[in-house]
Amino acid sequence: MNQFVLQQGQSRELQLFPHIIEFATRKNISIELNSLPGTSADFVRIYYIIDGKFEWCIHDQPYILYPGDMAMILPGQTFGNTKGILEIGKLSWLHIHIQKLENGKTQLGNWSNLSESETQMIGKILLMPKTVVLPRLGDAGRIFLSLQNELFNHEIGYCTRVNQLLDELFINVTRRLTKQSTSGRDFPKTFLQLEQKLRENLSHQWTVEEMAATVGMGTTLFNERVKSYSGFSPLNYLINIRISEAIKLLKKPDLNVTDIALDTGFYSSQHFSTTFKKLTGYTPSEFRKRNVSES
Fold this sequence. Notes:
Blueprint: E1 4-7, E2 20-28, E3 44-52, E4 54-58, E5 61-65, E6 70-73, E7 79-80, E8 89-96, E9 99-100, E10 106-107, H1 116-127, E11 132-134, H2 138-153, H3 158-178, H4 186-200, H5 208-214, H6 219-230, H7 234-250, H8 257-263, H9 269-280, H10 284-294
Antiparallel strand pairs: 1-2, 2-8, 3-6, 3-8, 4-5, 4-7, 6-11, 9-10
């Protein structure tokens, strides 16, 4: 998917779809500070992860999302990153209105081609869980790509097709919710265990072989799994953890920057500064000054 942002009232592609507030795909090549504070909205927000690892807080619950995962934030629910950052990676999102009825029930809206009873049933299922986070929902990626093609190409019947795709997205979500497995995904659980071990000893110069051995995998399989689930190589995955920890430590003004660099596993303060600026756009000192001035 190419990068784009379509917004209602500003993008001609959405003129015939007033129920679509925003539709976008974005590739984030550096950590963006103060860009994802916790917010709520009166519409549905849907996010699909293409590449990367995103740590979000949805309705006061922490979640880690990997490629193929989808999150649906319902009206009134809070969504953001606890550190206010947007991590490196690629994602698509869709903001869309759903209709609230006078009796308190919810349905998709007049744009939907489904029957009234079907849209009300979908609304009822969506409101049952506190949050809707679905792992490995590959169909969502296909639907997002098809939506992009229809909105940009304007082929015959595209208006009908766009709304059909939105119906399909909500149908897939609710069908998955009705048979959601509680078993989870094995490797993300392993990820959590690995990340905990790495954070406990970030000053250690971890090798890929050591990280693989920690989770009981061979190096080749470990490389494949990390890339598949996070979109990063193991070493880049480790660097992102180090920068994440450094961001937290830099907010403590009594800690020396050089000490933070060594404690989080960088060879020197210069190595730390160069890497930090590459991934955030700021040097550690600039970030610290900015954070102090905004606090």
